[in-house]
Amino acid sequence: MNNVYIETFGCEMNKNDTNIIKSIMLKEGFNIVSQFENANAILINTCSIRENAEKNIQNRINYLYSVANSSKNDNNKVIIGMLGCMAVQLGEKMFKSSKKIDLFVGPDGYSNLPSLVNECLAGAKKLDIDFKKKEHYDKIETYIDKKEIYAAVTIIRGCNNFCSYCVVPNVRGREKCKDFNSILKEVDDIVKKGAKSITLLGQNVNSYQQDDINFPKLLEEVAKRNQNVRISFLTSHPKDFSLELVNVMKMYNNICNYIHLPVQSGSDRVLQDMNRKYTINTYISLINSIRAELPDVSITTDIIAGYPGETLEDHQATLDLMSLVRFDSAFMFMYSARQGTPAFNRRDDVNNVEKKRRLNEIIALQSKISAKNNQSEVGKIISVLIEGKSKKYANQLVGRSLNNKVVAFEYGGSSARVGDVVNVFVEIATSKTLIGRQTN
Ligand code: SAH
Ligand code: SF4
Ligand code: F3S
Asked: Which atom number of ligand 1 is nearest to the Cα of residue 262?
């Protein structure tokens, strides 16, 4: 009765949480199975960020429930657990109404998961969506798949920013920093297991603080101790991004030359309503200062189309900003009203057809900009960390550059292997990929 199947939705943090969950479950004697048909408990680590995400997950749970329980009766029923952000967002309501889900556990409740699963297997129905005041996963050695050369370490959980549209502060609670020494130890462990690239994760890594250790100091220490490993970080809120951090990035060749700096909108009026706490002018000056120090840096962003009250002028301001900044790539979304957020009470007045139109315009512009930016890499020799074989072409390997671009190259006979760093001469660029040949 102890086979557990886990499926994960949502952001990098959620994927990393699944590794914490796996570690906790394995320690208590559960097996992690890769097919849900073999499981006694199916756990879904969920995301609430947009309505679409929730709908997809609901459909998936309905499917898993019906298939997993089709040949079972009440005595050998497979239990279904909803973990993560949706459990907090919808758990209380669904706990009363859902016949399919036996267990709801929020992002701070995983230490208790083994006993909760056991109780549910014995017939109970359980809800634990409370937040802890302090980070309490410090001592857990995060599970890491031996084959993975990419790994992530969560350094700060939760969010204190309350952007008007965003459910994260509600579903993950306030910021909690992981202990500095525990972070260093976790990075050491992961590197020993073979990781070649580590991402330090948080909703806003820049607000990391433990005594006098801020994020630039933490990043420096991690980079200094692991000079053969690529170090990157995700995500940075523009209001907290400091030039101290840029200096650290400049000092260490193993820190990726890549910054994700979500802007959300190009209109000051919208940004103010979103409670983002910066203006377009300050955002642009920040980008200029970063690029003055790190000329080859790749900068990516997030953009929301059709925020409540967004006018055609506001939308145009976003397109203008994109043309000016020329992001290397962007995650682009239609606004989705989330219950419990400040913007939920605003009239969601840009209709869906118009939202979609604006989003498509944003996507089309970004795709042109990405293609043009990538063109400027043609003719360069860049260092690539090999991830694996190309899915498209049998004789190609794929990897990433130090500025996080996907690179595909022919490996005709070379002995390069996953995890190696090789030099690639870039011959062709598309909006998504650089294509070239290995030079060493
Ligand atoms: N902490 C990160 C991002 C968290 S969510 C940050 O502050 O940048 C990732 C992205 O989802 C956000 O940057 C935003 O662009 C998008 N997003 C969040 N809530 C949304 C909503 N209600 N509708 C549409 N997009 C949303
Ligand atoms: Fe959400 Fe804003 Fe926090 Fe990012 S900073 S997680 S967008 S509230
Ligand atoms: Fe991540 Fe989605 Fe939660 S984006 S923090 S899993 S709401």
From this structure: 8
